[in-house]
What does this fold into?
Amino acid sequence: MKTNALFRECLQNVSAETKAEFELSFAIADRIAELLQEKGMTQKQLAEALGKRESEVSKWLTGRHNFTTNTLVHISMALGEPVITTTTTQKPKPSPHKSTYHLSRRPKRAMA
It folds into this structure.
């Protein structure tokens, strides 16, 4: 994410937690932009796939949006690749239902 010098200067004067929040938001926005480019998709096409306005996707790509996990799942499904990864992340599987994401569940522990 390209940021101007004034913004970087201001970021130096905030708490470590706030700085980490900004940097994560920028990293997520960068990843979405990267996936759009890799897939040859436009912001408008992503917006249409998600049932959103292009202006909302544009806002996401500024890096100043507080994403919910639900939104990240929908974006990942639309792009066919995870936006963020964890140690258990798997490539999203297409679902017969447009807005459903299937998670594998761990077996329940037996009660002693």
About this structure: Confidence is low (pLDDT under 50) at residues 97-112. The radius of gyration is 17 Å. DSSP finds five helices and no strands in the chain.
